Amino acid sequence: MNKKDEFINVYKNNIRRDGAEQLLDFLEHKCDFFIAPASARFHLSHEGGLVTHSLNVYYCLKAYMERARVREEYGLTASDETIAIVSLLHDLCKIDCYRPGFRNVKDDNGIWQRVPSYDYVDSMPYGHGEKSVYIISGFMRLTREEAFAIRYHMGFSGTEDPRNVGDSFRRFPLAFALSTADMEATYFLENND
């Protein structure tokens, strides 16, 4: 099964909220979600990287939420639908933003080489997490916890006021869990890709 089919399978098996079908149709037919890279130059900066990253975050978040300590000591739970929504859709802000291009890099011998890369061109510069919330909300309603989790999924590595990040993590622990899953996927699963 390819990553697109895997994503659609996870999506359809977990997300049944009003508007979910329309959002999936948008992702399949009206934007570049399934072919977009996850970044311009770093993790999964190749065609299909965004869908791969979204699935990686889903599996990391699902595993995190299944930990006994998380459930028993922290009291953190979320429905399968919520886990799928926040992880699979947290980076919709990246759709239609990457354009194929080139950059110059030195090879092992110190000679400049022209290599393929991506340029980031955002026609809707609404921020990172908040843009994802905005796009999703055009199709289906998010709970407050889901919206905050997606909004603050970059955690302290983003440009947000650290007081807002910390306060969001305290009020909405799912935001911390999603941020942890995003970092795990990015720095451990996708580090060498």
Pick out its properties.
193 residues, mainly alpha, two-stranded antiparallel sheet, 9% strand
Question: What does it look like?
Answer:
The structure is a single chain. The protein is 51% helix and 9% strand. The chain has helices spanning 3-14, 20-29, 49-66, 68-72, 80-89, 129-137, 144-151, 162-171, 173-189; strands at residues 98-106, 112-120. By secondary structure, the protein is mostly helical.
Find the count of extended strands (DSSP E, 2+ residues): 2
Give the spatial strand order of the biggest sheet: 1-2
Taking pLDDT < 50 over at least 5 consecutive residues as the criterion, the unreliable ranges are none
Give the integer mean of the pLDDT values: 95
The main pleated sheet reads as: 2 strands, antiparallel
Coarse structural class: mainly alpha
Through-space gap between termini? 20 Å
Strand and helix map with partners:
Elements: H1 3-14, H2 20-29, H3 49-66, H4 68-72, H5 80-89, E1 98-106, E2 112-120, H6 129-137, H7 144-151, H8 162-171, H9 173-189
Antiparallel strand pairs: 1-2
Helix pairs in contact: 1-3, 1-5, 3-5, 3-9, 5-7, 7-9, 8-9
How would you briefly describe this protein structure?
By secondary structure, the protein is mostly helical. Helices cover 51% and strands 9% of the residues.
